[in-house]
Amino acid sequence: MKEFSVCYDRFCLGNYTLVCDVSDTVQATADLGAFEMYVLGMWNDGLVVTMKAYDEVCGENQFVLLVPDGSEQLMSFSPGRGFVVRPYRAARQGRFAYLLDFLCGLKYKGYQGYEEYDEEEKMIFGIVRVGEKSLTYGGKNLQEVKMDFKRVIEEAIS
Questions:
Q1: What whole-number distance in Å separates Cα of residue 17 and Cα of residue 65?
Q2: Are 124 and 33 in contact (CB under 8 A)?
Q3: Between helices 32-44 and 142-157, what is the axis angle to 10°?
Q4: Is the pLDDT of residue 85 over 70?
Q5: Pair 11, 52: CB distance under 8 Å
Q6: Domain assignments of the chain as residue spans, ordered by start
Q7: DSSP string of the chain?
Q8: Do 99 and 69 form a contact (C-beta atoms < 8 A)?
Q9: N or C: which end of the chain has fewer CB within 10 A?
Q10: Record's superkingdom (predicted)?
Q11: Most confident by average pLDDT, 70-79, 100-109, 114-123, 146-155
């Protein structure tokens, strides 16, 4: 089994506000795109992202480990045993497992894009080369970026 380093950047993660609906699906917020790009950067380096989440049912904070295989583990503190980590969601089943499709850049019909996050615009922008043209695409989160990426390519090749 591969070992991962656990990284927690309280200054960075504290700035992201993420919301999940009743089915635990992450909703689009102003901070989602920045968080997605942060997670991708960490996963690209083989690092686990530690996310602090508030459990409204228990009324306490929990630490959720977002593992680069798309799984999630819960970490809690036990006075007798220290930190205890237990599986929560299997590989490719975590809330952010959809990000695995973006690890190597977007690909569609033989074209590959390259994406970056723009702090000032609070958007993800990408560039794809279609023939002699360099086309741009973007969105507030990676789902919007993916749709725009496909749209730009379809328009260019039609």
A1: 17
A2: yes
A3: 90
A4: yes
A5: no
A6: 5-100, 104-157
A7: ----EEE--HHHHTT---EE-TT-PEEP-TTHHHHHHHHHHHHHTTEEEEEEEEETTTTEEEEEEE-TTS-EEEEEEETTTEEEEEEEE-TT-STTGGGGGGTT--EETTEEEEEEEETTTTEEEEEEEETTEEEEEEESSHHHHHHHHHHHHHHHH-
A8: no
A9: N
A10: Bacteria
A11: 146-155
Sign of CA dihedral 41, 29, 119, 150: positive
What does the block give as tokens for 36? Answer: 């997605």
Q: How large is the average pLDDT for residues 16-31? A: 74
Q: Which amino acid, one-letter code, is at 157?
A: I
Sign of torsion over alpha carbons 128, 131, 134, 137 = negative
State the Cα–Cα distance between residues 27 and 100, nearest whole angstrom.
Answer: 18
Residue 114 pLDDT greater than 70, yes or no: yes
Using a pLDDT cut of 70, give the percent of the chain over it.
86
Whether the per-residue pLDDT at 2 is higher than 80: the answer is: no
